Amino acid sequence: MTHPFYQPQGSQSQKLTPKERIWFVVALIPEGKVISYGKIADLAGLPGRARYVSRALKEAPEHLILPWHRVINSQGKISFDKYSQMFQHQMQCLRTEGVPVNSGKIALSEFEWRPEMATLVMSLPF
DNA sequence: AAAATGACTGATG
DNA sequence: GCATCAGCCATTT
Fold this sequence. Notes:
The protein is mainly α. The protein has helices at residues 18-27, 37-43, 50-58, 85-96, 108-111, 117-123; strands at 35-36, 71-72. Strands 1-2 form a two-stranded parallel sheet. Helix 1 (18-27) crosses helix 3 (50-58) and helix 2 (37-43) crosses helix 3 (50-58). 22% of the residues are buried.
């Protein structure tokens, strides 16, 4: 399976911690698309906890290999300090997969991930 | 228990 | 568009 949280059938009620739900949703962001911390929180069933999403990403286990660089703030900008190593890294990751970044900003009108809710819900184990 | 800390947000000027 | 600000919330001091 390609998804790090893939589970065999029958585990619908599998209990996932809040962090695991966040990681699960982040893993679903398509290459070439971005989404905000707040939206990830919503999709993970944690409305109002955008800051918790950033924390969860920072604490994500290496082995999950999550596309954390596709998560930006609601203003469509990279949240790291403009002159930081992480900012440069995230910008490079995005550009590499075809997402234009100008002055730290991404055009949400064109590159925001807007999943079909009905479809997405069915792929979530929670 | 109280205060500080953030990879956040929405409103405001 | 950009800078401020107050509000937000789990976690750590």
